[in-house]
Design brief:
Blueprint: E1 26-35, H1 48-54, E2 60-72, E3 75-88, E4 94-98, E5 102-107, H2 113-131, E6 135-147, H3 150-153, H4 155-158, H5 161-164, E7 178-186, E8 189-198, E9 216-230, H6 233-254, H7 257-262
Antiparallel strand pairs: 1-5, 1-6, 2-3, 3-4, 4-5, 6-9, 7-8, 8-9
Helix pairs in contact: 1-2, 2-6
């Protein structure tokens, strides 16, 4: 059985060594850097060189329009805000998204921090080479775990009591939706931590968490910093990787040795 790492404070304690989990319930990992708007990214002719730089790894190109919810006379309505180019690998499990305001890498097939940030670094370098963004405005990294089926029945044994909450109560069977949300300040960054039960066919974020047909338990960790700084690829990737490490520390604090064993962890 994997040994437990003693983490008293996941916001400041040393980062534990990674324990690979071959069967991890990790639904999605996203890294994003927002930058000062570059309007030519809207135009197809200016995307060619960027596409050439990443096409070997991400050969499929998709194109759509991004939307935000805006308040109108009839309530919240979608508002079109710009072009989004999506470059997808052959498996469909890795996607690079590029808009006039940000670039993001996301995957549903995460294997390691080293692999993910090697890929993210290559994408950020291509953005720098072909578009020369002026300023970074936000850097963020997000890991989304979801447990369903049999794992949900065992959740009180898989995660700390602070996170299983109402599932340890006598009326756990009646709970169909119970999400907690917390924002922690860590130096100049923030960690948004969300966990709890999500009812069937519901989502709290359609862009990242797809509804499924049964209840599930979420652990959604999003660390980010807002603030302007020069667009320096190496510094961006180093900062993003640091956020991933802190998220991992929080994850390891949150789960039990039984969780590590259940999902294939080994010493």
């Amino acid at each position: 059985m994997p040994t437990a790492t003693t983490i008293a404070n996941p916001l400041s304690d040393p980062i534990p060594a990674e324990i690979p989990l071959p069967n991890a319930p990790l639904e999605r990992v996203i890294a994003q850097v927002r930058f000062s708007s570059i309007l030519k990214i809207e135009q197809r002719e200016f995307i060619t060189s960027f596409q050439d730089g990443i096409r070997t790894r991400y050969p499929s190109l998709e194109h759509d329009r991004t939307h935000l919810l805006a308040v109108g006379p009839d309530g919240l309505v979608p508002k079109e805000v710009g072009t989004r180019w999506r470059f997808v690998d052959q498996s469909g499990e890795w996607t690079v998204s590029l808009t006039p305001d940000f670039v993001a890498l996301e995957t549903t097939r995460y294997t390691s921090r080293a692999d993910f940030f090697s890929r993210f670094g290559a994408v950020v370098e291509q953005v720098h080479t072909h578009f020369k963004p002026g300023l970074v405005e936000r850097i963020g990294v997000r890991y989304i775990d979801r447990i369903d089926h049999d794992g949900l029945a065992e959740i009180s044994n898989l995660v700390r009591g602070e996170l299983s909450g109402v599932l340890q109560s006598p009326f756990r069977a009646a709970a169909v939706h119970a999400l907690s949300e917390h924002i922690f300040e860590i130096d100049s960054a923030r960690l948004l931590a969300r966990w709890g039960i999500l009812r069937a066919n519901r989502t709290v974020d359609p862009a990242a968490i797809e509804p499924i047909e049964q209840p599930s338990w979420l652990l959604d960790l999003d660390m980010f910093r807002v603030g302007k700084q020069p667009f320096v690829p190496r510094a961006i990737v180093a900062e993003a990787r640091g956020y991933a490490e802190r998220i991992y520390c929080f994850f390891r604090w949150a789960v039990t040795p039984a969780f590590l064993t259940r999902y294939g962890g080994a010493v």
